[in-house]
Amino acid sequence: MPVLLEGSCHCRAVKYTVESNTPVPYQLCQCSICRKVGGYMGSVNIMGNTKSLDITRGKDKIKEYVAVKSFDEDDKPKEMCNSKRSFCGECSSMLWVYDDEWPDWIYPFASSIDKPDPLPAIPEDAGLIAIKRDSCPSHVPIPEGAKSYDGYGPGKGIEVS
Fold first, then answer.
1. Mean pLDDT confidence for 124-134
2. What positions does the domain CENP-V/GFA occupy (predicted)?
3. Which value, in Å, is the radius of gyration of the alpha carbons in the chain?
């Protein structure tokens, strides 16, 4: 049974709802992109069902960012990511990530989720994982008790059992 997540940006110009079959913020991405757009430690995403996304306020305020995957020696974009990061154009709060490679899923940033409060706890047998450490400087810590992986870790993600 899906859980209805309610989210917003910091200035409340954008509000949205999305259903999630896995509403647990279990994965901290520490790649170079997520650390720059999400903050020092990275960003935590939750999986949502794309078709259930309903922007209830501020659709006109939403901007998209397609990140650069790699740069050349002159810092010019060499390769772009497939994913699109949506954020509020007023306050810059990150809202969700979407990638055409996985059209059924959208990944809201856990930091944008307001309800339910609290979100379901990480199951004891799952634990928090820190991913994409291969593009992360050593001064960025791994949260206590988290498993860490250079890439995405084992399996294909929480959406695949």
1. 86
2. 5-125
3. 16
**Structural domain contains residue 10:** yes
104: domain range?
3-148
CA distance 157 to 144: 21
pLDDT at 156: 55
CATH number at residue 21: 2.170.150.70
Q: Is residue 144 part of a domain?
A: yes
- What's the structural domain count of the chain? 1
To which residue do tokens 């400087």 refer?
137
Helices marked H in 21-161 — which ranges? 32-38
Spatial separation of the C-alpha atoms in residues 154 and 50, rounded to whole Å: 24
Residue 53 in any domain: the answer is yes
pTM above 0.70, yes or no: yes
pLDDT, tens only, 39-80: 888 899 899 999 999 999 999 999 999 999 889 999 999 999
